[in-house]
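Q: Predict the assembly, please.
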Amino acid sequence: SSELTQDPAVSVALGQTVRITCQGDSLRDFYASWYQQKPGQAPVLVMYNKNSRPSGIPDRFSGSTSGDTASLTITAAQAGDEGDYYCGSRDSSGKNYVFGAGTKVTV
Amino acid sequence: QVRLVQSGAEVKKPGASVRVSCKASGDIFSSYYMNWVRQAPGQGLEWMGTINPSRYTTTYAQTFQGRLTMTRDTSTGTVDMELISLKSEDTGVYYCVFGMDVWGPGTTVTVSS
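A: Predicted assembly structure:
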């Protein structure tokens, strides 16, 4: 399968915790990466290799994987965390890359 | 730190072709992959394909097979993406992405008669 499924939207109160999920068969074999995109800007990598954060990404962001589902958790959510979050990974063949449809996070 | 610079916005007519360039600088190791991702207005991200500039190998998404070509110029360190037979549905922002980690600023391509 080459599909990654995400919830369309989620809201979280300021300072609370939100978890975004991404489900797909290929996630049993390949790690998901997570990208944050704010309006009018290019996406930014916020998580890779299940739970690794690029430099500059706060430790309020964490990742996990269980079976065919990857999760991105934002703790102590801030207004600046608002945006669209996309998961991405290899498809089951390993030759192509696929994205989920994105989750709009509102704080 | 890797930095990506992309060529400027393009306006094309249906049936024409477009070439978008991407130049990488900074901590580039000898073998890497440059990906291209498209985003239609108000839509999500769509992976188009990848090129390994040092090995000159390419993989294209099935959706773009036959219309997409990725090339590299080792003398300038530039990677190009050319899409032919443009349709209005090809309107969007085209990003080059180093690995799948560092994103370029994007190039807006508008296809309109």
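Chain B touches chain A at residues 35, 37, 44-47, 50, 59, 61-62, 95, 100-106 (CB under 8 Å). The longest strand of chain B covers residues 18-26.
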